[in-house]
Amino acid sequence: MIVLTDFHRTLSGYADAFALLADAYDGTAASSSELEALIDRYSALILEPRNALLWEELTLREPEETERLAERLRERSAACVALMEKYRALKLLDGAENRTGYFRNIEACIEEEFGSFAVTRQSRVLMIGSGSFPMTPLLIARRTGAQVVGIDIDPEAVELGRKVAGRLGPELPIRLETSRIEQLEGLKAMTHIIFSSTIPVKYELLERLHPLAGEHAVVAMRYGGGLKSLFNYPDRHTEDSGWRLAETVLRPGQIFDIALYRKAAEQDRLIGGAR
Ligand SMILES: C[S@@+](CC[C@H](N)C(=O)[O-])C[C@H]1O[C@@H](n2cnc3c(N)ncnc32)[C@H](O)[C@@H]1O
Q1: What are the residue boundaries of the structural domains of the chain, listed by start?
Q2: Which positions ≥6 away from 159 have C-beta within 8 Å?
């Protein structure tokens, strides 16, 4: 019981620390080392298997309080991860780039992002929540030659993202915009669509995407359940939205997992064909 109380206290401490460091942003990278160290410690806590058991136990004992704590941690850690990308971008543009454990974790995912639905040179890729340091668009464009479009709700992130892409891959076919999905040019032609894990409304966006996306599009929804839901928005059922789960890429030891969706009609056609 003492162990559980301590664990709860530790998690609440992270929620407070995230709030303080998010407030400290002044448009420069002055508080970046502190934030990077905090996020690296938090990532290690999330990936520790013993903590997954403690979290399960806490959830059973105090379901409502733990859900409130989870929501607070998710919101604040998402804001801090977006901020850490700003710091990484500012430092790169200032000539002092460094790579934290968290970024290595994201970069490790690119190869397996689409499971058996590989991205090729002919693919058209959309990343929703491309961030200030658009490493997913950069890595995909560099490794596959596919054209990549990134959108982000935060104009500062798009502005920094464009500068980072201009610095790291001026020759790469990457376009970054603030557009809403309804305004996005060429959406029907996108073959692969990735959702950043830290978008609170990602499943609402998935629903809005349904009438706009091409019939054969594959969606990679990054998510985290259980203890990982303290650092990611979790997955949801999609039966009512016209999307069907095609594959799940579980990644033990990595910060998020990936659910792959296809339009229900397309998925049923493929399953029918395989019978
Ligand atoms: C952690 S960052 C980007 C992920 C990372 N750059 C990558 O390549 O995996 C998440 C981004 O999602 C953006 N975001 C949050 N809500 C959004 C929304 N409703 N639509 C688009 N972008 C959103 C944030 O502004 C933030 O820049």
Answers
A1: 2-103, 107-274
A2: none
247 Cβ neighbours under 8 A, 6+ residues apart: 115, 116, 117, 259, 260
Question: How does pLDDT run along the chain (275 residues), one tens digit per residue?
Answer: 778 899 999 999 999 999 999 999 998 888 899 999 999 999 999 999 999 999 999 999 999 999 999 999 999 999 999 999 999 999 989 887 655 555 565 666 676 777 778 899 999 999 999 999 999 999 999 889 999 999 999 999 999 999 999 998 999 999 999 999 999 999 999 999 999 999 999 999 999 999 999 999 999 999 999 999 999 999 999 988 899 999 999 988 889 999 999 998 776 766 666 55
CATH 3.40.1190.20 fits 107-274, yes or no: no
Residue 214 C-alpha to ligand 1 middle, in angstroms? 23
**CA 28–ligand 1 middle distance (angstroms):** 20
- Which of 184, 187, 199 maximizes ligand 1 atoms within 8 Å of its Cβ, making it the mutation to test the pocket? 199
270 sits in which H/E element: helix 264-274
Q: Name every protein residue with a CB atom under 6 angstroms from any ligand 1 atom.
A: 81-82, 85, 106, 128-131, 133-136, 151-154, 157, 196, 198-199, 201
